Amino acid sequence: MADTKKFLYVNRKAPYGTIYALESLEVVLIGAAFEQDVSLAFLDDGVFQLTKGQKTDGIGMKNFSATFRALGDYDVNKFYVEKESLEERGLTEADLQEITYEDENDDWAEKPSIRFVTRAEMADIMSEQDVVLSF
Amino acid sequence: MPYDVNGTAVEHDEEGYITNLSEWTKDLAGVIAKAENIDMNEEHWEVVNFLRDYYDEYQIAPAVRVLIKAVSKSMGPEKGNNKYMYELFPYGPAKQACKIAGLPKPTGCV
């Protein structure tokens, strides 16, 4: 498609407590229908959105962390996670859930969607975008 | 008016999607299908059950494009195509089948 733009959704907030994380995900899902080049960035407290083993029964919220695993089906498969944000919160790559997509250009091989990048690399990624939406 | 499942009232929104997802039963699915003018057969159930499993795993109702791709992967391309799915659910497989499956309206579906 000729008019494809690069969209980056920047997620900076913890998954629950505010509506930002869920709203961001909803916008990603709606936007995915328009066949744009979509990436997600997770930094600051936003890295908590991808942690595994989330349990939300006690706060009466839907555990939407499972929905990130469906995004591969929507051709959303670039999840940039900032290494410094993880470290500052005592998290490691192993604390995050596994998210994969099937690469249609490589015989549907399963590949990881999460890419760990440094703060400097994240800045480069942001500057390459046509549209940056911050949540 | 709420759905009437053997005397039990089940609330729904103005478009017919049930309000409390945990109230879903097979009997309710039959009642919703009837309201949609759909006579449930095995093929319909296959899609409805597939959607419920999908929701269980991912916590969303898939968009129609994604549903068809996923059905094609798990049940084969002879079922995972527009024609087959629209024959089963003429007013939109994602919309109607999700309603019968007791899921919320698919995100991005107007």
What's a concise summary of this model?
The complex is a heterodimer of chains A (135) and B (110). Chain A is 20% helix and 24% strand.
Walk me through this protein's architecture.
The complex is a heterodimer of chains A (135) and B (110). Chain A has 135 residues and is an alpha/beta fold. Chain A has a single domain (6-134), classed as DsrEFH-like (Hypothetical Protein Ychn, Chain: A, 3-Layer(aba) Sandwich). Chain A is 20% helix and 24% strand. Chain A contains three helices and seven strands; from the N terminus they run βαββαβββαβ. Chain A has helices at 20-31, 83-88, 119-127, and strands spanning 6-11, 37-42, 79-82, 100-103, 109-112, 114-117, 131-134. A five-stranded parallel β-sheet of chain A has the order 6-3-2-1-7. Chain A has a two-stranded antiparallel sheet with strand order 4-5. In chain A, strand 1, helix 1 (20-31) and strand 2 form a beta-alpha-beta unit. The longest helix of chain A has 12 residues, at 20-31. Chain B is mostly helical. Chain B has a single domain (3-100), classed as Arc Repressor Mutant, subunit A, CATH 1.10.10.370. Helices cover 49% and strands 5% of the residues of chain B. Chain B has five helices and two strands. Chain B has helices at 26-35, 42-58, 64-75, 82-88, 93-100; strands at 3-5, 8-10. Chain B has a two-stranded antiparallel ribbon with strand order 1-2. In chain B, a hairpin with a 2-residue loop joins strand 1 (3-5) and strand 2 (8-10). Chain B is globular and about 40 Å long. The chains are: A alpha/beta (135), B mainly alpha (110). The interface between A and B is medium-sized, with 14 and 13 residues.
